[in-house]
């Protein structure tokens, strides 16, 4: 190697390291930004949002984005702040807590009094297409547990929610936030019907 080439090597390494340093990993959350909007009055019942199941192919730290030619890409520079299943559970719990005024007691010691609505969510499809849409297909259920563990009614439903999104990965994540908010509203409607003593039906 000539002396000129040897002298160029450090400069090339510095440029490469600078390029890497200029593109840090972006981390995203499905929890929406806290707003000042009022929550529902405190409810006399509680909820328990159980752990969420998700498809194995999207159970990755990276955002998994569908390509136009039926391929998918794992975006190393765009990642979730935590496990995707936990992110979905937290987003649904947060929205239900605000819409219903109910405390999520999953994982907490519970007394044998009072009604708890157990919410189970099985995400069958979590699809992301940048600049086009964010889609969630999910099967979910609400089961009423009365005082001292007495069983009550159960409602099982399925929902498909597709939100159009703009350009950029932040817009894609926001689309999933909106889809989860819409899903949570449907779950909340069923809980309200059960609380009122009505026969609930699956929301469209």
Automatic annotation (TrEMBL):
Residues 1-21 form the signal peptide. The keyword Chloroplast does not apply. PROSITE patterns: PROKAR_LIPOPROTEIN. It comes from the Bacteria. Residues 29-188 form the ABC-type transport auxiliary lipoprotein component domain. SUPFAM superfamilies: XCC0632-like. InterPro entries: ABC_trans_aux. Keywords: Signal. This is ABC-type transport auxiliary lipoprotein component domain-containing protein. It comes from Oleiagrimonas soli.
């Amino acid at each position: 190697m000539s002396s000129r080439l040897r002298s160029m090597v450090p400069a090339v390494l510095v440029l490469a390291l600078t390029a890497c340093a200029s593109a840090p990993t972006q981390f995203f959350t499905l929890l929406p930004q806290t707003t000042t909007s009022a929550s529902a009055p405190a409810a006399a019942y509680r909820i328990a949002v159980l752990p969420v199941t998700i498809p194995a192919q999207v159970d990755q730290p990276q955002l998994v984005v569908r390509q136009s030619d039926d391929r998918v890409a794992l975006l190393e520079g765009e990642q979730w702040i935590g496990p995707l299943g936990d992110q979905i559970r937290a987003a649904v719990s947060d929205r239900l807590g605000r819409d219903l005024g109910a405390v999520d007691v999953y994982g907490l010691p519970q007394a044998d009094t009072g009604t708890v609505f157990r919410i189970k969510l099985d995400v069958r499809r979590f699809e992301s297409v940048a600049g086009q849409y964010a889609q969630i297909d999910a099967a979910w259920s609400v089961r009423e547990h009365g005082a001292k563990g007495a069983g009550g009614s159960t409602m099982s439903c399925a929902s498909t929610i597709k939100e159009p999104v703009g350009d950029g990965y932040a817009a894609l994540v926001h689309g999933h936030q909106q889809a989860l908010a819409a899903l949570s509203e449907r779950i909340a409607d069923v809980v309200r019907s059960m609380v009122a003593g009505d026969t609930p039906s699956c929301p469209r």
